[in-house]
Here is the input.
Amino acid sequence: MAGLGEKREEQGQLVFGLDIGTRSIVGTVGYLNGNKFHVLAQRAKEHETRAMLDGQIHDIGKVGETIGVVRRQLEEDLNRNLTDVCIAAAGRVLRTVTTRAEVQFESEKEITDEDIYALETLGVEQAYEEFQKVNDTDIKFYCVGYTPMRYYMNNYQIGNLEGHKAKTIATEMIATFLPDDVVDGLYKAVEHAGLQVSNLTLEPIAAIQVAIPEKYRMLNMALVDVGAGTSDISITKEGTITAYGMIPVAGDSLTDIIVQSCLVDFETAEQIKRLAGEQEVIEYTDIMGLPQTIPSGAVMEMLSDAVKNMTHQVADCIKELNGDKAVSAVFVVGGGGTIAGYTEALAEELGIAKERVAIRGKEVMQNIVFELENARMDSLMVTPIGICLSYYEQSNNFIFIEFNRERMKLYDNGRLSIADAAMQAQFTNEDLFPKRGKALTYTVNGKTRITRGRQGEAAVILLNGDPADLHSQIHSGDVVSVKASTEGEPGKQELGRLPELSEQLNVVVNGTKISLPKTAEVNGVRENEYYQIRENDDIKVQNCYTVKEVALFLDVPLGGDIKVNDTAAKADTKVYENFTVSWNMNAEISYADLEEPDEEDNAKSEARKKEREEALRKAEVERLEKVKEDLLAQYGSKQQDGADSENGQNTAGEKDAGSVREMSVLVNGNPVALTGKETYIFVDVFDVIDFDLKDSRGRAIVTKINGHDADHMEILKEGDSIEIYWEESRARV
Here is the structure.
């Protein structure tokens, strides 16, 4: 163990075990060599006040001071520092869970110590999960010990898994749990004394390590550790420990009776109780300062009812743990069980021979070697030595870390990660992993549709200031910081990006195939493609047009003799995909074919018409201006090329003033003068007349020279008659 100095060449690792009892604290230091445990030093000190009651620490500071005294005494005896310690918890408010854990491998393999450890760790975690399901209190419990009862290899029971080849291994184990305040009090008292816990076990588990060797565990036996505040019980059968229990009655309950009967303080009453089995007459001084004497027989008579009540409770607990029947034999350890008449009373309560209930001390310490003078080898030393031996049997401990600036205690299974700490801190998974923004829910043609929100950012995790993740391993003293994940943007959907609106409606109108864009109504109102869909919107995609709507979209008049798929139809007849539509442009449409639309329809129709006119006007203007630019550029280039060829001696861009001439033409009947060039083409006219090409309003432009359609590059001659006007209105310049 760390802090115990260098190992002796011939010995194993030194272990410091501390039995923190209700009346006293016993410390033992030793090492395991082969199958024998060597005790190098042992010290004990009673509490100066009743800082502990019924196995529970009530005054952490006082208990810590007493632990410090025992530690310093042992350090002086050993001439070395002690920093790590093994401890045990009494079975106050003890809970147990029996579970089965199983591990399957991909293929058959040889089982190692690591495999067995992983199996047992899985069992502990599984037992904790099962315990949490039935924990009906708000108290947080911790696993303080476990015992594998049976091992299985490929579903067959086996004594030891190590070295065997198997594809499946399993264990049945019993795990014990104690409340957080019990465990926390022990750790804080130990820390107060400047020590760090290296292993935690349960007192009955520790005691059984010494009191009932494995060769006896085939028998159905009970071990009763009678301390000052609690009587801890364990049961063995078929080679394993099968159950643990506890009753909150022990030696102090007897001492309290002597306090009341003899009018003495607690310390004096303890001395009277101990001497009752050793002396015939006991002398003492009462609280009035008067000397008193009492025969041992009187003390036993005074305590007989209490002993009977205590053993009755112990016997009932043994039977309950053993399937409602008595065990074959009982070993008793601990100072509380040494009171005269205890073993006989317990045998009577169990209904077994009194010879089968016995106090065990030195008799069960054949494998304990005491390397110190005046060593104590009675039943009081069974549990302290067992605490040391438990260190070799199982690694069981808690570590302390800082999680988001709060101190936290974690059960150390050797594989702790940040995820384990987050779970214990009740840091929800929702705050660990990226959160999606709120989904957008709406309906399209009566079917619910959801657009998911964007993914947010994952939690920001730091371990001792460095970036980490949920799987990063943690150790005692680590500082963990977890900043909650964020929520992404809520779901968004533009109406025009719905798949249904990306398709078009293909129909044939008057022999020409056209494609009509699909439209949609949202909550009964026609919306454009840029509309942002809102929560619970009801969208209906229009997969058809009426004949009237087709004509409006094409911006052409609707005539008579309407037919849809060669069948007589009306203006409001619906036109679907691949339908054919026709009407006679020269035939007059009847009122029946085209009913007068209401004001709302008129407004919508007028708005759509204006939109189409504006789009056509812009397109026509852009086309004409582009034509003009291209023609002027082309013509200007040709003019310049001609000038350069005729005046080779001139530099580019120079003009011969003598080659420039004026020309007069008629435009829409009005004389117009052209100047600045030697030759003029049709498009030059637009530079000198007032004709707004942007005012098309969807109309076509008419251009003529001397009565024929003009070629924009056509060269003009003196007196040519030019006509330029919009086709519909024949508005002239």
Notes: Confidence is low (pLDDT under 50) at residues 1-11, 591-597, 634-658, 729-733. The longest strand covers residues 95-110.
